[in-house]
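Worked example

This section walks through a single chain of length 190. The input is the sequence exactly as stored; nothing has been trimmed or padded.
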Amino acid sequence: MKIFALIAAFLCSTSYGFVSVSPQYRTTSLNGVNIEVDSIGNNIKVKELLQKVEDQRLLSKVAASGLLSKAQEAGITLSKLEPLLALAAEYPDILILVEASGPEVLAILPTVVDLAPGALPLLARAVGVPPSLLSAAGASVLAAAAATVVLVPDDSVASVALQTLVVGLSLPAAGAAFVGSAILGQLTKK
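Given that input, the structure is written out below as C-alpha cells.
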C-alpha cells in the first residue's frame, strides 16, 4: 500500500510540473508597496518604461541632440562619474534611500520619458553653463522668495497664497540649482 501512495505522489508531482501557470502576473509586496511582476520575475512597470523608451527612440534622440558631445566638450566623461559611485559605496544609506523611494520614483519615470525629448536641447545648453552660474541662480531664486515673503503684505488670503506659491516653487528650484551646480562642478573639475 505504501508503494502505491509513493507512486501516486510521484505521478501527481511530475504532472504538476507540466501544468501551465494561470496568472501571467503576480503581485509582490515590498515595504507595503505592491509590485506587479511577470512569470519570470521582471517588474511590469520597468518593462513598460523600457518599452516606452524604445518606442520613442529616446536614445537616438539623445545622440541626435548633441548632448553627449557637448558633455564631453565640457569635460564630463564616464570616468568622472566614478567618484559619485565611490561616494555611494562609502555611504550605503544613500542607496537605501534610493531603493526605498523606488516605487514612488518609478511612478513618475513615464512622465520624465514623455518630457525628455523636449528637454534635450535645454539639457544640451545647460551642460555648458558654469557651475558658479547655477549657484548664483539658486541664490537669486532664494532671494526672490525671501523678497516676496517680506514685500507682499499678509493682509489677504490671496497674498498669503501668493507667498506660499512662490516659496513652494522657489525652494525646489533653488535646491535643484545647488545640487546641479555641485554635481556639474564635480564632473567638470579638471
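What to look for: Residues 157-188 form the longest helix (32 residues).
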